[in-house]
Structures are given as structure tokens and as C-alpha cells.
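INTERNAL AUDIT FORM
Audit reference: QA-55
Scope: verify that the stored structure record matches its stored sequence.
Auditor: D.O.
Record contents follow.
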Amino acid sequence: MKEKKKKGKLRENIESFIVAILIALFLRAFVVQAYKIPSGSMENTLLIGDYLLVTRLNYGIKIPLTDIYIVRWAKPKRGDIIVFRWPKDHSKDFIKRVIGVEGDRILIEGKKVYVNGEPLNEPYANFTDIFIYPKDHYNPGRQFFCPSTLISCNRDYYGPIIVPRGKVFVMGDNRDNSNDSRYWGFVDLNEIQGKAFIIYFSWDSNSRDIFHKVRWRRIGRLIR
């Protein structure tokens, strides 16, 4: 009898474990995904070591493990912070802010962003370099002379360009240190994984004080 009870208990535990795994997979596929900030491209909105929850339901429902929507009820809006597959390498996820949606005319003049001819109000934008590169300059990162006709290779001047249908134009809030649409183009709507909405944990690995490595004030902060 004791042996049967042990087997019954073991089977019950295994079944509970399998159910928990299935629920976790379901939530990750359809509802929410965890994401860690690996770089400073979104400072000061998001810091290196921030752990986020990304909702997958803002824009629709996809077939798991694909970029195919079962149903789509919304599209990203200007200002949304999204996680998406990097167009240059789909094995990597990036996080940026939507600056332009399909049909928008984007122009950057001396770091200032204009959308459809109007200056964009960007209280979140962070500039760490006071120097403004002219339209024609030598770009050390790309190791070639960057003419103004190649708008995608210039940091402080870009466009004008129209965001194509089914795409968005994204930029990091840390404008002088962000690998974004200015350099590799637009993000396809189908490549968007979800919208970031809350910081559930934050860890400062550079802090020398063990008691201050956890950024307590950031935990629970809604992402805007």
C-alpha cells in the first residue's frame, strides 16, 4: 500500500510539473514574455540590467514560434516601446521606441526629429554627445566616407523618407548611442514580439555596494 501511495504521489507531482510547464509555455507564446535590457540604447528610460515584462496581446495573437498573426486588432502607435526581431538577424531581439508608423514622413535635422513636417515632442530623448555631425562626414564605425545621399548612414541627419506600409521606424531613446532604423531600416509589423509595459526587477552590476545593486525604485515602474 505504501509503495502504491508513493507511485501515486510521484505521478501526481509529474503531472503537476507538466501542467505548470504547459501553462508557462502558453503564457510565453500568447500572453507575456520576459526581457532583459542588455545595452544602454534606451537610457534613461530603460537601464542596463532592467528586467521587463512584454505583453504579446497589445497588437494581436500569433501562431506560436512564427510571425504569422491569427488575428490582429491593433498596430503600434508612435511612442510605443516594442520588442522585435532584429531585421539583420532574427535570432536577436531588440527593444526600441516607435517614432514613425506607416505613411509617416520622417526627417532628422541636427538631431531634431520631424514627423510629417512637425517637430516631434520627445521628453524621453537623451543626448550624450553635444557635437552634431554635418550631413557629409567620415563615419569611423563604418570606415568609409558617408555622403548625405546615403541617408541610412548618418546619425544626426536623416531623410526625408516615408515609412512603407506594414513597417515602423524605430529609434533608441539614447539617440547618440543607439543601433536603430537610421542604420538598418524599418521593422516589419510581423517581426514585433510585443509591447514593453513594466519593470519587474532591476540589477546594477556596476554598483560596488552589494546593498544598492538592486534598484528598488525601478521595480514595478510602468514603461512609457
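Auditor finding: record pair retrieved intact. The CA atoms of residues 2 and 115 lie 73 Å apart.
Action required: none
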